[in-house]
């Protein structure tokens, strides 16, 4: 079969849907090209001198890894000059990054977690890049507030997983499509159109070491899964936790499951663990486009009106019937 490269896919979607503007196509090509560079840097590992701590911290108070900083720089550098963006924001930067004066500005806003799963970098376990695209509100002078739009306003979202292979999963609001990086050609090739998450599952993904901090509804749900055949669910469950959201969610999009970083007493004061704008929102958009569901337990993630750039939220996402069940326990 003739391979369909990302560019051809985007051009065909542009013709079919009329939803992709030339600037949005440029944006997606530029972001995914940057992901190829990140994939190469990640793949070099110790040989590239890229492992270990950067010796700096981000606004979340987390120690940055060298690869967090390298990936952030790659995405900034790639996206500054094309004229498609009004501003960028990242997990690794306190405030939005303006487009340098010498370049034209465009109508889109880009948010990213340049390298998700930082704790896995030095141990050679899958990590990834997550990104979200919004439109800059008409007539507004560029400011941080421009970014504070609910996830329903996203025009595109995607992620790359740097694992045994590098895969790109993308939605532009018309289903979810998977591409695999052909390392010899240096191109993303379409390998699965219209990914669908099975509505039922026997697999859950949660950091069990936080059990004593969970709220009652989450504890009840997991207890019932763990009780297996002998419990109210009447079937045995399996548990998987990579500890890179991007890899855990990718498994769920591929074969079903439910991923949770719920509210717990450890993270309650900050609203949760994962970040709304560049982790929960893009992943929720993708999950919903693949037929799954994404909630905090109390509300649909995509409906949340953000009040700050680095806002955190509880996350429960994946196979629809399981997510609905957890919600009903709330
Ligand atoms: P990061 O963006 O700094 O990598 O942190 C987010 C990560 C998620 O990828 C993952 O789901 C979670 O934090 C792991 O948490 P834990 O350390 O509790 O396993
Ligand atoms: Mg992250």
UniProtKB/TrEMBL annotation:
Catalytic activities: beta-D-fructose 1,6-bisphosphate + H2O = beta-D-fructose 6-phosphate + phosphate
The protein's Enzyme Commission number: 3.1.3.11
Binding-site residues for substrate, renumbered to this chain: 116-119, 207, 273
MF terms in GO: fructose 1,6-bisphosphate 1-phosphatase activity; magnesium ion binding
Cell compartments where the protein resides: Cytoplasm
Domain Fructose-1-6-bisphosphatase class 1 C-terminal: 197-329
Binding-site residues for Mg(2+) 2, renumbered to this chain: 113, 116, 279
Record bears the keyword Phosphoprotein: no
Keyword Metal-binding tagged: yes
Main location: cytoplasm
InterPro entries, alphabetized: FBPase_C_dom, FBPase_class-1, FBPase_N, FBPtase
Residues that bind Mg(2+) 1: 91, 113, 115
GO annotations of cellular component type: cytosol
Names of required cofactors: Mg(2+)
Cofactor details (free text): Binds 2 magnesium ions per subunit.
Domain Fructose-1-6-bisphosphatase class I N-terminal: 6-192
Family label: Belongs to the FBPase class 1 family.
PANTHER family on file: FRUCTOSE-1,6-BISPHOSPHATASE-RELATED, SEDOHEPTULOSE-1,7-BISPHOSPHATASE, CHLOROPLASTIC
Subunit and interaction comment: Homotetramer.
Protein name: Fructose-1,6-bisphosphatase class 1
Organism lineage: Bacteria, Pseudomonadati, Pseudomonadota, Gammaproteobacteria, Nevskiales
């Amino acid at each position: 079969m003739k391979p369909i490269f990302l560019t051809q896919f985007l051009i065909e979607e542009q013709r079919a849907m009329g939803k992709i503007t030339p600037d949005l196509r440029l944006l997606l090509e530029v972001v995914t090209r940057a992901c190829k560079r990140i994939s190469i840097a990640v793949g070099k590992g110790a040989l590239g001198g890229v492992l270990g701590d950067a010796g700096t911290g981000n606004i979340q108070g987390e120690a940055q890894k060298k690869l967090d900083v390298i990936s952030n720089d790659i995405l900034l550098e790639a996206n500054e000059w094309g004229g498609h963006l009004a501003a960028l924001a990242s997990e690794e930067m306190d405030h939005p990054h303006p487009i340098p004066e010498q370049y034209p500005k465009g109508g889109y806003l880009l948010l990213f977690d340049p390298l998700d799963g930082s704790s896995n970098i030095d141990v050679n376990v899958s990590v990834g890049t997550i990104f979200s695209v919004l439109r800059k509100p008409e007539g507004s002078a560029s400011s941080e507030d421009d970014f504070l739009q609910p996830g329903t306003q996203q025009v595109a979202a995607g992620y790359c997983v740097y694992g045994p292979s590098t895969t790109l999963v993308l939605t532009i609001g018309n289903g979810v499509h998977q591409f695999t990086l052909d390392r010899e050609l240096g191109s993303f090739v379409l390998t699965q159109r219209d990914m669908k998450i099975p509505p039922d599952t026997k697999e859950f993904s949660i950091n069990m070491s936080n059990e004593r901090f969970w709220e009652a509804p989450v504890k009840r749900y997991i207890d019932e899964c763990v009780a297996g055949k002998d419990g109210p669910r009447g079937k045995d469950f399996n548990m998987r936790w990579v500890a890179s959201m991007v890899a855990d969610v990718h498994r769920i999009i591929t074969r079903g499951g439910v991923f949770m970083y719920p509210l717990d007493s450890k993270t309650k004061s900050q609203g949760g663990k994962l970040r709304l704008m560049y982790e929960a929102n893009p992943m929720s958009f993708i999950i919903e486009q693949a037929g799954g569901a994404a909630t905090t337990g109390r509300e649909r993630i995509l409906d949340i009106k953000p009040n700050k750039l680095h806002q955190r939220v509880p996350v429960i996402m994946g196979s629809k019937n399981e997510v609905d069940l957890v919600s009903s326990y709330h």
